[in-house]
Structures are given as structure tokens and as C-alpha cells.
Amino acid sequence: MKYFAATALILFGLAACSGPGAVSPRKALMYEVPETPTLTYVSEASQDVIVDAGAMGTMEIQGSSDITMAMTFASAENGMEVTVEFQELTASLNNPMGAPETASESDIEGPLVFTMDGMGRGTVVSTPEVKGSAEQLVRPAGLAYEFFPRLPGDVTEPGAMWTDTTAYELPAEGGMIASESITTYTLVGDTAVDGVTLLKITYEGEAEAVAEAVTQGMEVIQSFSGDVVGMFLFDPARGVMVYNESSQDLDGTTEVPAAGIPPMPMSVTGTSTVWLQGG
Fold first, then answer.
1. Rounded to the nearest 5°, which phi and psi values hold at 55?
2. For residues 170 and 145, what is the distance between their CA atoms, to the nearest angstrom?
3. pLDDT (tens digit, 9 = 90+) per residue, 62-87?
4. What is the DSSP string of 98-149?
5. Which residue has the higher pLDDT, 154 or 54?
6. In the chain, what are the domains?
7. Using an 8 Å Cβ cutoff, are 151 and 234 in contact?
8. For the whole model, what pTM was predicted?
9. 3-state secondary structure of 185
10. From CA 246, how far away is CA 16, in angstroms rounded?
11. Band (97; pLDDT cuts 50, 70, 90)
């Protein structure tokens, strides 16, 4: 799981952990509107991007984010509607082509609203007003497509596997971001956390993306692909994701057409952790 941040290539991923066990009888494995409709999630992510600039040397870009979001779920046709309020946000990026970039919750005005079916497939309804570097560092609309891991929507047993494709395109400053990933999930089994029975689900997939944007007044084109792996915990009684962590290892190129040099090789590595506040 990941959601791409333009220009800086901050890819924030998700997923989870726990131990295997026997699976008790259960209903269909799918997201539901929880009895307590507003849930608070915390997301922490970090990423390193290394660009081989040839005679100019190696450029290293480091980014991080820490986000607290209140998500309110309501029943809707074919699933649910999710309203996301960004309560706290700290994001930063060191940029070798210019001054460091930062963003806070004050740079995002209004909620993100999207619809989602029981399998976790989202569609954007409306987006918040985003100011300054927050558009590049956070890219709120990506949450609708990448935040929730996919579920099968039917009854499954340990060892069951399912595959899902996620593809979307978002506008970026002076360009766009196009992303596609194919992910295979495996239900490992039950695990107990603080006396609550949760499901452990692992996943691995292949992701590829192209980002076109303008930074420091110059067009930058980046393309990359590689592996994303992770695992998450799902509460079948409430129909909600409780914990999710992932890592990514990608390779690609960065091109600055105005510089008149060939595309520069780059590597992207990162980790992300998301958890439900209060469990």
C-alpha cells in the first residue's frame, strides 16, 4: 500500500503485523460502517530517494510525515462515505534543488470526502483546499485509493489468497501522477491483541508510477517501479482496519528536460506505519 506525493516522490505506504493462529467462524471479510462512526488513525512514514546525477554526483532526498486523521463513516449506496479531517500534520522534505519544504495541518483546509465499497475500493467525492508544499508532500486525494488494503468481500479461511489492482491518476503542480499496483493478499489467521481477536493479512505486490511536475521552476519527470510488501490487522467484529505497516523498494529514473542531460537513475526505499488510535 502506498500513496504517491508528487515532485518529491514521497511515497507513503501502509500495512500491519501480528501472529498466525486458528480462524474462528466469521462473516464475509469486508469493511463496514463501525458502531462508533468516527475513528482516528495515525500515520507515520519515511522515505529515501537517491538520484545518480552522473558528473554532478549523487543527490539524496529524504522525506517524512506524521499525520493524525479523524475519519467519519456513513452508510451510502454501494458501501459507505468517508469524511477525513486532518487534525495534525507534520511533513518535511530536504530538496537538493532548493530550500527544504515543510507542511502542517494549517495548509489543508476542509475535509477529504470519498466513497468506498466493502472491499476498500475508493472514489473521490471532494478534496480539501491545499496550500503551499502540502500539495506535494501529502497529496490528500491519494488516501481514497491507497489508505485501506483490499478485502475479498466473502468468507475466507486461513491460506486464502486474493489479488487486486489499484490504478488512478491525480493532478500535480504543473503535471500529474499516475499510479498502478497489483497486490496479492493472504489471510494468515487469527491473532489476539489486548484480548481482541483480529485477523492477520499479509500482502506483496508490484507498483509502478509516473510523476510529472514543476519544482523550482523546472519540469521534472520521474518514473519508477518495484516491490511493496506488508501486513495488516483487521477487526472482523467491527469491520475496520486496526493496524497496517509496509515497506517499498523501487527503482526508476528522474529527468529534467531543461537540463539537457539523459534520464538519471534513482532508487526509492521507504517504510510506513498506520494504527487506529485507541485500538
1. -65, -20
2. 11
3. 999 999 999 999 999 989 999 999 99
4. SS-EEEEGGGEES-EEEEE-TT--EEEEE--EE-TTHHHHT-GGGHHHHSSP
5. 154
6. 2-276 (2.30.230)
7. yes
8. 0.86
9. strand
10. 7
11. low
